[in-house]
Amino acid sequence: MPVRADAPGFTQAVTQTVTPRWALAYAASLGFTAPACLDDAAPGGLAIPGPFCVCLEWALVGGDERAARLGLTAAERRRNVHVSQDSVFHRPVRPGMAVTTTSRIAHARQTSAGAFLLTRLDSRDAATGALLVTSWSGAVLRGVAFDGEVDAAMPSEAPAEPQPLAPGGEREVIATARGLPHVYSECARIWNPIHTERAVALAAGLPDIVLHGTITWALAGQAILRARAGGDVTRLRRLSARFRAPVIPGDSFTLHHAAAAEGVRFTALAKGGAVALASGLAVLG
After folding, report:
1. How far apart are CA 186 and CA 182, in angstroms?
2. Separation between Cα atoms, residue 102 and residue 131, nearest integer Å
3. Torsion of CA 252, 57, 25, 124, to 10 degrees
């Protein structure tokens, strides 16, 4: 079924409590092994990596209510591909905090690959209303039509795509384990069988199970923090990238990054040289 033409403007909200168990599991699954990320008894408290925000957002972008509102069948839901993530970290998320996340579909259009949806998500401290994270999340429903304007303009409030990385800069090869998406799915609470069940991935037209784009994105941010901020996760202010070619679990990918006026630009190449992350930008404080 086509995505409904009135999808833009659809708004949801959910409040979730960030438990130490959830935050610790997320950090461990991605190798954020510094004591600040894994010691919840430390005097300064547990530091939760900024990319954890996608765990809070998944309840909305991957939830039943949104799928029903868009008019998606179960098979169409499995064709959802996360294609971009741009998150700005205003204040740290803390263990024990109740966080209210609000999502709004800001834009939808037809593309050659399928219906494209751009969603704005704001996460706030439920007790104070303080803004913690603002994210813009892009997704394509592969092979699913959009029953609205084909050439709808992007909303003016959406951030401009960062400039691509020029040749040069630092290079790092990042290894991934075959079981990483299985561990991450459970620790992050982000479930999509194309990442863990090979039969489902093959039926969806993929060559194999693939890493979540948010894994590659977070690992890129982690490597940049390690190279340029002593691994201090509290210094990450923004992390943005477009997700292109998939990374197969068990393969390594190569990260290139270089300092620029607006932050650290980066790109990542999958095995074989295909671009996995494009127009990447990390802003450090």
Report:
1. 7
2. 11
3. 130
Pick one of 3.40.50.1000, 3.40.50.720, 3.10.129.10, 3.30.420.40 as the CATH number of 1-159. Answer: 3.10.129.10
Q: Does domain 161-285 have CATH number 3.90.1170.20?
A: no
CA atoms within 13 A on the CB side of 138: 18
The C-alpha R_g of the chain, in whole angstroms, comes to 18
The answer to whether 264 and 111 have CB atoms below 8 angstroms apart is: no
Give the pLDDT confidence of 23-48 residue by residue, as tens digits.
Answer: 999 999 999 999 999 999 998 899 99
pTM over 0.85: yes
Instruction: Name 199's Cβ contacts closer than 8 Å, sequence gap at least 6.
Output: none
